Amino acid sequence: MRSRYTAYVLKNETYLLSTWAPSTRPRELSLQESTTKWLGLEIVASSGGEPESDTGQVEFKARFIEGDQHCTMHETSSFIRHSNLWYYLDGDCEITRQKIARNGTCPCGSGKKFKRCCLQITS
Questions:
Q1: Helices within 11-95 (DSSP H only)
Q2: Terminal Cα distance for the chain, rounded
Q3: Is 58 within 8 Å of 73 (Cβ atoms)?
Q4: For the domain bounded by 2-122, which CATH number is listed?
Q5: Which residues pair with 83 in a beta bridge?
Q6: Closest Cα to residue 52, out of 16, 23, 81?
Q7: Contacts of 102 (CB under 8 A, 6+ apart)
Q8: Domain ranges of the chain
């Protein structure tokens, strides 16, 4: 899960597609034009994934900024193991969005006002 999050941060479409189960994998991703600024990943829980398991689930929260909104993605992802490698299968996802005031503190943790920090990046 952490490696896939990092791939989203780095816009590494090749890695994301190669770690996606063929049965649910999209043909392509369009991350290069994305202005999403990823802020952090929190693993909430996991199940399965033991050496004898062929399935597993990871519940996580990922925070990000998109435009002028602070967003939290809360997902429970399902993974399958094939030939000793884990692949993302699908996920049950909910995204919450909260508008960030231009003069409010930037949620990235810089301590700067949003308009002087991440708003300039995502605009």
A1: 13-18
A2: 29
A3: no
A4: 3.10.450.50
A5: none
A6: 81
A7: 68, 113, 114, 115, 119
A8: 2-122
Q: Quick one: residue 84, left, alpha or beta (phi over 0 = left, psi -120 to 50 = alpha)?
A: left
Residues whose CB falls within 8 Å of the CB of residue 15, separated by 6 or more in sequence, listed in order: 3, 4, 7
Q: pLDDT, tens digit, for every residue of 70-93?
A: 999 999 999 999 999 999 999 999
User: Which residue is associated with the tokens 């990871």?
Assistant: 58
Q: Which residues of the chain have pLDDT under 70?
A: 121-123
Instruction: Estimate the share of the chain in helix, then strand, then coil, as percent rounded to the nearest 5.
Output: 20, 45, 35
Task: Give the amino acid at 98.
Answer: Q
Measured in whole angstroms, how far is the alpha carbon of residue 32 from the centre of its chain?
A: 15
**Cα 67 from Cα 6, distance rounded (Å):** 20
The structure's pTM equals 0.88
Tokens found for residue 36 = 């999403």
Please give the pLDDT value at position 122: 56
